[in-house]
Known about the structure:
- By secondary structure, the protein is of the alpha+beta class.
- 31% of the residues lie in helices and 17% in strands.
- The protein has a five-stranded antiparallel sheet with strand order 2-3-1-5-4.
Amino acid sequence: MGLPKSRLHDIYENEVKPALIKERGLENPMQVPRLKMVKVNIGVGEAKDNAKALEGTVKTLTVIAGQKPVVTRAKKSISNFKLREGQPVGVTVTLRGELMWHFLDKLMSITLPRVRDFQGVSVKGFDGRGNYNLGLRDQLIFPEIIFDEVEVIKGMQVTITTTADDDALAADLLYRLGMPFRDYKVTKEVA
């Protein structure tokens, strides 16, 4: 038995998908862009000296994402950073399916509005292939994080992967799903 269907997934199926088909003139329903996955990464540079920092970050990301993350390790040695190949340098989690929809719903409707002086996210985070990257300064903006239990405040990167061919279509999809873009208008081009 899996997770119940997310509110955001319902919005995509019942509102966003038909609107994109109609307004973009897509003949085939398979042309409609959809979300493939969401990756959340946290870099833990001090993990090479302090194993407890890595444990705390794994615990934090597990609570935020609802899934146990994987520890990422250095691919090669870099003497200037006193880093050896194979040392832990971060944690990452890949979300798919309903867990992805629940995480994005929480991110767009609860977490981002909690940021102090929030005025929207930049539309310039697209990579040219329809994927969106968003950097967050700290993990304390998530409602499930208890302030007193966090030892180190870490930033994180959220990457939203879509099946869209270009940035304009991906931006349109995310905007219709509720991503609070700053100064975004539904057009064929991304600013």
